[in-house]
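Good morning,

Both structures are done.
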Amino acid sequence: MPDPAAADPAGFDLTGFNTAPADVLRPLLTECLAVPRWVDAVLAGRPYPDVDALLAGSARAADLSDEEVRAALAGHPRIGEGARRGGVSAAWSADEQSGVAGAAADRLAAANAAYEDRFGHLYLVCATGLSAGEVLDDLAARMDNEPAAELRVAGRELGKIAALRLGKVVA
């Protein structure tokens, strides 16, 4: 079975995921989404008949409370910045944000700061496949949201990121 601390955790097939001890999967699932209730729900849903069922179970469990969203956001790096800690999620984050690196770093830093001043938490988007310009456009559009609505948007983005990462776990 793959080591949960390894930089590339892919290696579980669905059967391996379904049969791995919970204590082996728990740290890796926490790297996908640092919400203990979500981790417990994904583990409790095993065995999954296929990857689509696993992702559907993940999505159902990713209906996060405001407190869960805030806690999960606290562990994410800012868009355009490196991860605050190492491990699997740092490697995943770098890959997910690969399209937003480079020349727009100063604009992203300023936009992140304005967003955090407005909402009190960091801006998060599932950045896979997005350019820096697309991320900046999304951030600007979300600045008009009411804080409670924006927290729900951030929660949905956490769910998207969790699904993307979970797909990597069961590659």
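Second structure follows.
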Amino acid sequence: MLVVGATGTLGRQIVWRALNEGYDVRCFVRPRSAPADFLRDWGCYHLSKPETIPATLVGIHTVFDCATRRPEEPIKMVDWEGKVALIQCAKALGIQKYVFYSIHNCDKHPDVRPMEIKSCTVKFLKDSGLPHITIRLCGFMQGLIGQYAVPVLEEQSVWGTDAHTQE
């Protein structure tokens, strides 16, 4: 199997569980120096480099796609162009199952760019004819960890004001 977004909160859990269940797992991760640089050296790649996709899919029967861009990355490049290239390659190479993690009711919020992209990806995947499952998560707040959880743990202001409270 291939896990796209293998170092994220969700992807890491999928990889861990799959390995514990005895599956052979290949990972697709973003090129960063830490903590996953060693994964790239082992043959793991990222959606921002579509030319790496075909080789990554050879020998794969199932793709788990739980990747999304980081705030500093262009959403169109990773969450749209990268996903389109991945879905097209998966279809061309006869992938048996594509599992896509989306957002609940994303189609009802076209004015929110990440929701619009997820909705378009769901439609593109459906129209591709690739055997797939779409899991629409009701909320995945990984982005809030740095914005809220860490400041709370470090007793810093959450809203970015100068007010200092312990509530």
